[in-house]
Amino acid sequence: MLAAFGLANLLGSPFLGWLADRSSSRKTFLLLGLLLLGTATVMLTFATNVQVLVASRLFQGLSAAIIYTGGLALLMDTVGLEEIGKWMGFVLSFGNAGLLTSPTLGGLLYGKLGANAVFLAMGIIVALDIILRLGMVEKAGPRSNYLPEDEDSQPVSAVDHIESYPLIPSPAASQPDATKQNHVSVTRSRMPTLLILLGKPRILATMYGVMLTQTFITSFDGVLPVFLRHIFGWDSTRAGFMFLTVSVPTLAAPLTGMLSDRYGPRWVAAAGFMLVSAMLASLPLVHYDSVSQRVLLCVLLTVLGKHVRRHDSCSVNELTLGFAFSLTIPPLAADLASAVEHITKENPGIAGKAGAYGQAFSLLNCGISAGVLAGPSLAGFLHETFGWSIMARSLAVLSASAILPI
């Protein structure tokens, strides 16, 4: 069931990104995702066997791909390239706010009113989002700022091309306009936009960076509780505090987004990976039980964006340190948008009026999904086979490997 969501998200994102760009309305596309999410919620509520549960998770993964790619494309359409880093940071912060509050609220509802109350709350939230989406006003005009001069005309078909050049051309027709020739050539020979994007090293570097970030975030979910029990003797209740604040440090994402808008996203992301690499390489320093070791682990994990809280060793103030991961994803998403803008400027009309942001952010979502799937497996294998120190240093090397490509 856990893999079903990630696989549906990963495999469905490219097609859904293409569909997002071909859709006449971002609103309609997002409504499709919400309706799919509502269907998945109903299936989850009344599921009586494993097959229905897996199907509901598959629908949830597809709906997440729709909402993520369509939502980020809508954000780019609305705010433009100049402030995309800051607003990407806000999106990340609100997403993490949901991760922070949903387990607590879900647990309270389940404890007081039972499982049906949790599913009912989920349905109400989806219905509220649908109402808000119906009232959404989209920005008018084409989604791409770089179009060929005759983009308003229909794409040239083979029949139109033959009819445009008769067997006995007139003198004026014997020297056709160069712009039209170029447009015919581009229209007939261009590759799919998604393949063009995948052929750009800058796009691949962004996907690699996002995948690594999500790999690091999810790597500790299974490994860290085992380590805490082995070294400090903490039970699941004490170790479970890390999940309460797992996303608090990334609430600094709007700030790092603004830094990327001002100084350039690639510099900010590179600094983030340098910081992540340094913190991961320092984790082997924690190897026995003492107050100082607990404090050191708390500081390192909080800088990374994780937090383990115990009243006698960690203070809430240490949460202010935790923005290393916030230095990576918002700037990388902003750099992806900038790369798409640059590609469409160099090749006007490759994506038409629909633009290519949906497909670009679907690749971003693929990187995130791949990291979610790879992180626990990779960290678990390294930890079980080689131990905590080798695992941490291996992840540090992976983080450093993203600095130069970015």
* Ends distance: 34 Å
Query: What share of the residues does DSSP label as strand, in percent?
Result: under 5%
Number of beta strands: 0
Helix percentage: over 70%
Number of helices: 17
Structural class: mainly alpha
Order of helices and strands: HHHHHHHHHHHHHHHHH
Mean pLDDT: 78
Detailed description of the structure:
- The protein is mainly α and 406 residues long.
- The protein has 17 helices and no strands.
- It has helices at 2-22, 26-46, 50-79, 84-113, 115-134, 158-164, 178-189, 193-198, 201-231, 236-239, 241-244, 253-263, 265-282, 291-304, 329-346, 357-386, 388-400.
- Helix 1 packs antiparallel against helix 16 and helix 9 (201-231) runs parallel beside helix 16 (357-386).
- The protein starts with a helix and ends in a 6-residue tail after the last helix.
- Residues 149-174, 183-189, 242-246 and 306-322 have low confidence and may be disordered.
List keywords for this structure.
single chain; 406 residues; mainly alpha; 17 helices; globular
Question: Can you describe this structure in just a few lines?
Answer:
With 406 residues, the chain is mostly helical. 71% of the residues lie in helices and 0% in strands.
Q: Secondary structure elements and their pairing?
A:
Elements: H1 2-22, H2 26-46, H3 50-79, H4 84-113, H5 115-134, H6 158-164, H7 178-189, H8 193-198, H9 201-231, H10 236-239, H11 241-244, H12 253-263, H13 265-282, H14 291-304, H15 329-346, H16 357-386, H17 388-400
Helix pairs in contact: 1-3, 1-16, 2-3, 2-5, 3-16, 4-5, 4-12, 4-15, 9-15, 9-16, 9-17, 12-13, 13-14, 13-15, 13-17, 15-16, 16-17
